[in-house]
Write a structure and sequence with these properties.
This protein has 21 helices and 27 strands. By secondary structure, the chain is an alpha/beta fold. It folds into three domains: about 350 residues, Alpha-Beta Barrel (TIM Barrel), CATH 3.20.20.70; about 140 residues, Rossmann fold (3-Layer(aba) Sandwich); about 110 residues, FAD/NAD(P)-binding domain (3-Layer(bba) Sandwich). α17 runs parallel beside α19. It is globular and about 75 Å long. The two termini are about 45 Å apart.
Length: about 650
């Protein structure tokens, strides 16, 4: 008997190619390609692992049609030379054997190339908004952009066509052309980047679409009628003065005769102020973000199929999209990082066994010159070392003592027990979870809560001995006599030492998040990092009068908050949160907080009936020192917040790597 997801598992055939279900693993990169632009064993293993979990299509993302000329990643594939064919052919055969279809996304990034050596050719000699924003922040002028001559246009069209031919020679039956996110083809489509006055210019929609049409025509001429051509297409630039939805739909109709599938996305990837707002799988956004952008294309493009993407986290989302007729396929990427077997597990009815993506964006590590990984699945990106996500049994079982049950301690326990070690887990509180519980308590972070409810039961069933309510000291270690000690005590809240800090209306931000304390109507939050900003956003949306006080300047804080910095700032502004940058707390009174501007020295009082602390965390180093010599020092390890990081992803990955190699 099949699953209840009838639409998800309904096959469809396009140009003679059967898609076994409606789930597509959308274009993604893993940071494992060689700098020479050819496929590596690690990259192949990564895509094979995803394919083994059941999607109908797996798409290699952002393959440059000429990496020597245009590159926006350090380890992307270079489709400009025949040497790439060998590895792609072998991978294509293995993906086919797994009953999936391998596709590859062809791209020329144009003015948004960033890797040293890239030459910025574009429709017009205008730097991208992201480059201009970066220049304003750093004072370094943006790289020069060259307007493409007619001869250069024809040369680049040939690059796309020849790259497509190499995919065909590698055995591919499907490919994707990147027309979205203001890459080169999208730069021609958009009035914000195309100021030409010739036949490829901005005079009419037909002129703006011409370059993309000629690329698609050239590809079809090279690969023949049998190849399925998909395009990644922006439903809107989501930028002032950019491509609007009605224009995007009209351009879609112009290129539809040359396209079999449209994968709808939106926004500018390379613009720091927009990257996390629409195109990423952020916990700050509701699920199924792009519904409003996809529906017009499904209605207008009647001769092609539509893929819905972004903020799809499970097959219930997918079934809804298909049942409502919003799209013909549903694309996911990050959920396959968290659990590559997600499709098969849903098909079998093992939904509770799915390790669901928490939408934390930890996978962006590949943009920092590191291989991709996942916050909740530390085998992601390590498929060669841990095939099938398994660590394998040890030939030398040991007694392993884990101290602390935050995300690092939980992961260390799971991995060490899977290796076959005897594990005892100690937790000083009366419950497991540590700071993981606190991180999951903001209401809009409900996927984090699902992770808590996924990992803790697995630890409880792992076979490890669990001792709660016990503070570990050297005597406890001596009593257990472990062969290995893994210290995962985590971090504790920093409390500013100022007058009035112990008043009864002063609490930690996480206490407000979990409802353990009552808050009033005028709230001042000290610290505008991720914790403080998330708490502020939730309370402001509830109608509270919220002020954020932060010692950092606005620019440094935004950068420190990473990919969430800009959207958190924008959402808080929209919700009415007042922000006081460059200010430090100097006193708490019964009715206010007193703050001092770090630059001007100005003293100011902010009325407050509740003060919430989100100043940060400090590692429990005193606990480390108490245990540092409790067993032979070479068998003691520190993980999680004790070795930096401060994120769930750092905690789980650092703990996994220790436990997996015991």
């Amino acid at each position: 008997m099949g699953s209840k997801y009838k639409r998800v598992f309904e096959p469809i055939t396009i140009k003679g190619l059967e898609f076994k279900n409606r789930i597509v693993c959308t274009p993604n990169v893993c940071g494992w390609g060689s700098r020479q632009g050819i496929l590596t064993n690690e990259q192949s293993a990564y895509y094979e692992r995803i394919a083994s979990g059941g999607p109908s299509v797996v798409t290699i993302g952002n393959c440059s049609v000429n990496m020597k000329e245009t590159s926006d990643e350090i380890h992307q594939l270079d489709m400009s030379e025949d040497k790439v064919i060998f590895g792609l052919h072998n991978l294509q055969n293995r993906i086919t054997a797994l009953n999936s279809i391998l596709s590859a996304q062809l791209n020329y990034c144009g003015r948004i190339g960033w890797y040293p050596g890239s030459v910025h050719y574009a429709p017009s000699a205008l730097p991208s908004p992201g480059a201009l924003e970066h220049a304003e922040m750093t004072g370094i002028p943006p790289q020069e952009v060259f307007a493409m001559t007619p001869a250069k246009i024809q040369e680049v069209i040939g690059m796309y066509a020849n790259a497509a031919l190499r995919l065909k020679r590698a055995g591919f039956k499907m490919l994707q052309v990147h027309c979205a996110h203001n890459n080169l083809i999208g730069q021609f489509f958009s009035p914000i980047s195309n100021f030409r006055t010739d036949q490829y210019g901005n005079r009419t929609l037909e002129d703006r679409a011409r370059f993309g049409i000629e690329v698609l025509k050239a590809i079809r001429a090279k690969v023949g009628e049998g190849m399925v051509i998909d395009v990644r297409f922006s439903g809107e630039d989501v930028m002032p003065g950019g491509l609007q939805q009605d224009e995007a739909v009209a351009i879609g109709k112009l290129i539809e005769p040359y396209v079999d599938i449209f994968t709808i996305s939106c926004a500018f990837h390379e613009h720091p102020s927009y990257i996390a707002d629409k195109t990423t799988l952020s916990y700050l956004l509701p699920q199924l973000t792009l519904e409003e952008y996809t529906k017009p294309f499904k209605k207008a493009l009647t001769d092609s199929k539509i893929v819905f993407t972004t903020n799809v986290v499970n097959l219930d989302n997918a079934e809804y999209i298909l049942e409502e007729g919003i799209a013909d396929f549903v694309g996911m990427f990050r959920p396959f990082l968290a659990d590559p077997d997600i499709v098969k597990k849903y098909a079998r009815g093992d939904v509770e066994d799915v390790n669901q993506c928490i939408r934390c964006e930890y996978h962006w590590s590949f943009m920092d010159f590191q291989p991709i990984t996942c916050a909740v699945n530390p085998t992601c990106g390590r498929e060669v070392e841990f095939p099938g996500g398994k660590v394998g049994k040890t030939d030398d079982p040991k007694k392993v003592m884990v101290v602390g049950s935050g995300p690092a301690g939980l992961q260390a326990t799971l991995t060490a027990t899977e290796r076959g070690h005897e594990v005892v887990l100690y937790e000083m509180e009366d419950h497991l979870g540590g700071n993981l519980i606190k991180a999951a308590d903001v209401p809009f972070k409900h996927e984090f809560k699902k992770y808590v409810n996924w990992i803790i039961p697995r630890v409880e069933k792992s076979g490890a001995k669990i001792v709660k309510g016990t503070k570990v000291d050297a005597a406890v270690v001596e009593q257990e006599k472990p062969d290995v000690l893994i210290m995962a005590m985590g971090a504790e809240d920093i409390v500013p030492q100022v007058p009035g800090i112990n008043k009864p209306h002063v609490h930690f931000a996480w206490e407000s998040d979990n409802g353990s304390v009552e808050v009033g109507d005028k709230i001042v939050i000290i610290g505008a990092g991720l914790v403080g900003s998330e708490t502020a956003l939730h309370l402001a949306r509830e109608g509270k009068d919220v002020s954020l006080v932060e010692m950092c300047c606005e620019e440094d804080l935004t950068a420190r908050n990473g990919i969430f910095g800009v959207p958190l700032k924008a959402y808080n502004a929209e919700a009415g949160t007042k922000r006081y940058y460059d200010n430090s707390l100097i006193e708490v009174t019964d009715t206010a907080v007193v703050i001092k501007n770090c630059k001007t020295g100005k003293i100011e009082q902010l009325e407050a009936d509740t003060v919430l602390l989100a100043v940060g965390l400090k590692a429990r180093k005193a606990d480390v020192e108490a245990l540092r010599h409790s067993i032979p020092e070479g068998d003691i390890y520190q993980v999680g917040d004790l070795v930096g990081g401060g994120t769930i992803g750092h905690a789980t990955n650092s703990a996994f790597m220790v436990a997996a190699h015991l």
